[in-house]
Write a structure and sequence with these properties.
single chain; alpha/beta; Rossmann fold; pyruvate-formate lyase- activating enzyme; OB fold (Dihydrolipoamide Acetyltransferase, E2P); 3 domains; seven-stranded mixed β-sheet; five-stranded mixed β-barrel; 15 helices; 22 strands; disordered N terminus
Amino acid sequence: MSVFCKFADYKKIIDLKTLIDKKIDEKKQGNVLTIKNQIVGTKKLYIESYGCQMNFSDSEIVASILNKENYSTTKDISEADLVFVNTCSIREKAEQTVRKRLEVYNSIKKSVNPKMVVGVLGCMAERLKEKFLEEEKLVDIVVGPDAYRDLPNLIKEVEDGRKAVNVFLSKEETYADIKPVRMSGNGVTAFVSITRGCDNMCTFCVVPYTRGRERSRNPKSIVQECKDLFLDGYREVTLLGQNVDSYLWYGGGPKKDFKNATAEQKKNAINFSNLLEMVAQVNNKLRIRFSTSNPQDMTDDVIEIMARYDNICNYIHLPVQSGSSRILKLMNRGYNREEYIALVDRIKNKIPDCAISMDMITGFCTENDDDHNDTISLMKYVKYDYGYMFKYSERPNTAAEKKFEDDVPEEIKQKRLVEVINLQQKQSLENNKKRLNKTYEVLIEGLSKRSKNHYYGRTTHNCVVVFEKSSHKVGDYVNVIINDCTAGTLKGKII
């Protein structure tokens, strides 16, 4: 992080740089987000985001709300009036990282900018509000994911000398009327939030407790946001939610209350396949992706719509978590191994070249060698294009923490995780080798991180492709023939 200190005192400049260099691991810190073409305010907002794509999307909502309150974003923490970290609570490592960041913020506040207001947003807010505010005194303000509209009032409370907190979980809030600002993006791809919360109650997961019950956003606002993005030059949107397949609009309210809807509401209800088709029809030059899917909610209608529209990407993120039916039952995933395989088979049958990725957890409670071998054999059957793989880390107040013993030794968890990662690396490379000498349409997203002479973009399968620059520009579609690859990247040439 490059730091410009607005204070003239040279010693403070040196101290601040030393502090940051000493305590910040650049490889682990979250993205610092800034607004392009923002209304320049008299006050400065510094915001870092960690965790899932929903957190990054929420940061854009927060920045939009505060921009109207005369805050403009900055990447220079030393000049910030307001500092937020948007948090993740799904993994222990992410939580530890956020704590370290808060310690850094407070050190800077004490040594450089005493008037700085430090706050926590998002998923850690509800569970750790008392610790952060009262016990550890790390923050001035705590705001849950459904309370961002209240930020101006909460900031005023802090300015008046009080600590401020709002972690209320709403049954209706979707922020449908707030146009998110696009922060430090490439101007080509964007996230569009369509649902909030989750009803699935997987035993290992904190999301139902930190983000509340499932509710869906008005489809008209979603379609309009996609239209606006296309007119602004964006060429790809990712429909976002804790579980997009659960999307159900019947006039508003939690999905669990759909059973109480009127006959007219049920007749006119819009599910995810309906919404997917509506977004696909915005423009055939607007690519559509979606994440995340829960296998128990993935319907054949969605697969049919994907096959029907060329601008819906041939890629599905299909988290499985384990290959063992016994473990899946303990996780309360709502499907077994056989049902998951049958779903994969239907996808491959309807969309033969569809890429599939996964989430996988090793070392869940009571997992034995047979369960682990089931995971390995499932991976070999599906041949995932890539995946997100984790050791199980028990999260406080989840059903797993209350019902089960975290009894798999750490060294066994790690050993199994390494085996899963190594297999996935091998399969990713094998899948990419099958793409050699084939031509794909690639959306140019920007310059390669390793070379200013190369562009990068992605195929419909979500494969990253690197190729030499040409007269084409960011946001253009180009045809690229693949001539080399690694496990994570395709390399090619524009034709």
